[in-house]
Design brief:
The structure is a single chain. The protein has 66 residues and is an all-beta fold. Helix content is 0%, strand content 38%. It has one domain. Strands 4-3-2-1-5 form a 5-stranded antiparallel beta sheet, with no helix packed on it.
């Protein structure tokens, strides 16, 4: 998983009835875009996350085709 500042982290709900959560990546703390990430949640709360398999990075600017 690789991300840059400004990308979004989508965390899928783990149980039926729980909605997905979206957080903005405000700082990449790992090497070369790898976790952990400092994220800002929709409610304004900030936390440090090491995303698991239930997370997906939504890139702000998709990579150009090669």
């Amino acid at each position: 998983m690789e991300a840059v500042k400004g990308d979004r982290l989508l965390v899928h709900g783990r149980t039926v009835g729980r909605r997905d959560k979206v957080a903005e990546i405000v700082e990449v703390m790992g090497d070369a875009g790898t976790p952990p990430y400092r994220v800002r949640h929709e409610n304004g709360h900030e936390s440090v996350m090491a995303p698991g398999p239930d997370c997906v990075v939504r890139h702000r600017h998709p990579a150009a085709p090669r």
